[in-house]
Amino acid sequence: MDHLATGSEDLRITFADAQVQPRTVMTSPEWSGIEAHGRRYSPFTMNVECDKPWHTLSGRQHLYLDHAWMLELGEGLPAYRPPLRYTAIFGDQGARDGSGRKELTLQYLTPHSKWSIHSEYQDNLHMLTLFRGGGMLWVSVEDAADLDIADGDWVESYNRNGVIALRATVSHRIPQGTCLLYHAKDRNLQVPLTEMHGRRGGTDNSLTRIVMKPTHFIGGYAQLSFGFNYYGPTGSQRDEVTVLRKREAKVVYE
Description:
CATH topology of the domain at 98-246: Barwin-like endoglucanases
CATH class of the domain at 98-246: Mainly Beta
Helix content: 10-25%
Largest sheet: 6 strands, mixed, barrel
Number of strands: 6
CATH architecture of the domain at 98-246: Beta Barrel
Shape: globular
Number of helices: 6
Distance between the termini: 54 Å
Radius of gyration: 22 Å
């Protein structure tokens, strides 16, 4: 694999360089993709092009996991799991204020951030232009119409975990009954006081609740072994739900 380092022997990256923008370095043999200028990144190219074994018990691609815990929980093969019934488990979802305003309870999804790079570089002009300079909650056309929300309107989304104040992105790509907030970025921009509590709005993960999945505690079994940022007791926070309503009060910053 020495060819992967060709051309990088004299590469130097200073702290000042990293402050300007992310910098690429040589491809790591531990990674599955090949980082190189002039080609698009694609996963598992190391395995295909360099004959590197997959990090599995057999060294090959496989879907079946014969670990006793996986079999006991019915996950020996990939299987669909519906969202948890949070209302049945935890009771009422919100801190409803009794105002009688129209609200909707939606499934809350938190995909990885589109407009930041490992939570950084959000404050440059290019990134600010892409995500409109602040947090955006994506909602369906149908749910937005039901709550009289137009694209760019201020909304508040809350549940028993917290409340966030941000703008709405109305999109036909979002299914009815679901809202979506791109995650994993700092909320230092456009975070006003909330209408509900009068305090500064929460961060992107204010509405999520980490629920550990037992199969993520498996260790010492090929790819089912702890690796920081790769495999371990991560959360299943995308089972969450939230209550959405249009903001009526004036947007105020502190």
